[in-house]
């Protein structure tokens, strides 16, 4: 539960640092070279081990010890694509994933119905690259939209806290699970089953960190905290469905705009 002083400071926004004086140049360089790195690792580690403290600092706009949860989220969101590319794992979908259950002849026949910008029949590699590129860009709006149910529920739990504070609370727990999820990407080398276990563990970390935030800021009792955490857990299928629909619509739009290809024709040619 927020104490009185903490509650009053939640609407504080991050303010720009004061302009450095000439005689502070060495100190500024030292801070840029060492303290920033220290804050990065401290923020990541404490997001896992001291989640409420990082969340509260973000809600207050106090970034003396920790980086903003938003900045950390953006960095981790981008970094996951770097790690995934190293292990050849597209995170935004690919033609190979779309056609894994289809015969190669059916896929070739479907590709023959499309046209690239030059008027030529697109190759599987070309379509694959386009789906991955556009999918990576579309993941941003999809992620924002699918976060709304969580934020609305948190706002319902504690209406007096500004939405900015709820965003910081949500992102802090998300960042903690992101760290674990990125670390599990190499498990794909051992097989999809191992990777699935890693993703499951990342979800456990998310709800554990969220539970700590619920206990600290949203509930006066253990029973109330359990019910609030259960509410967040129950909307997970909704957000997963929203994510799936968003990715399907994004892929369909990408294929239509770039190659005049239809997903309906791919899966149900008789309906086209």
TrEMBL record:
Q: Does the keyword Transmembrane helix apply?
A: yes
Membrane-spanning residues: 70-92, 138-157, 169-189, 195-215, 227-249
Where on the tree of life does the source sit, at the highest rank?
Answer: Bacteria
What are the entry keywords?
A: Membrane, Transmembrane, Transmembrane helix
- Please report the name of this protein according to its UniProt entry: Yip1 domain-containing protein
Organism listed in the record: Maricaulis virginensis
């Amino acid at each position: 539960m927020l104490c009185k002083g903490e509650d009053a400071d939640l609407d504080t926004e991050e303010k720009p640092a004061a302009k450095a004086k000439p005689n502070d140049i060495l100190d500024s360089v030292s801070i840029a070279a060492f303290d920033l790195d220290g804050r990065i690792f401290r923020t990541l580690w404490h997001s896992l081990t001291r989640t409420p403290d990082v969340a509260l600092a973000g809600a207050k706009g106090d970034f003396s010890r920790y980086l903003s949860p938003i900045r950390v989220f953006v960095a981790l969101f981008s970094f996951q694509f770097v790690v995934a590319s190293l292990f050849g794992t597209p995170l935004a979908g690919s033609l190979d994933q779309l056609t894994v259950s289809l015969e190669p002849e059916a896929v070739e026949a479907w590709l023959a119905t499309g046209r690239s910008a030059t008027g030529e029949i697109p190759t599987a590699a070309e379509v694959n690259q386009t789906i991955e590129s556009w999918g990576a860009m579309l993941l941003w709006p999809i992620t924002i939209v699918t976060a709304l149910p969580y934020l609305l529920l948190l706002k319902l739990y504690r209406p007096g806290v500004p939405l900015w504070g709820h965003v910081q609370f949500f992102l802090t727990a998300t960042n903690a699970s992101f760290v674990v999820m990125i670390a599990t990407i190499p498990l794909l080398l051992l097989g999809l089953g191992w990777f699935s276990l890693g993703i499951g563990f990342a979800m456990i970390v998310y709800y554990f960190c969220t539970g700590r935030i619920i206990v600290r800021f949203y509930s006066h009792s253990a029973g109330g905290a359990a019910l609030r955490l259960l509410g967040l857990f129950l909307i997970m299928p909704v957000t997963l469905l929203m994510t799936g629909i968003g990715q399907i619509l994004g892929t369909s739009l990408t294929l239509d705009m770039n190659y005049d290809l239809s997903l309906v024709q791919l899966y149900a040619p008789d309906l086209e």
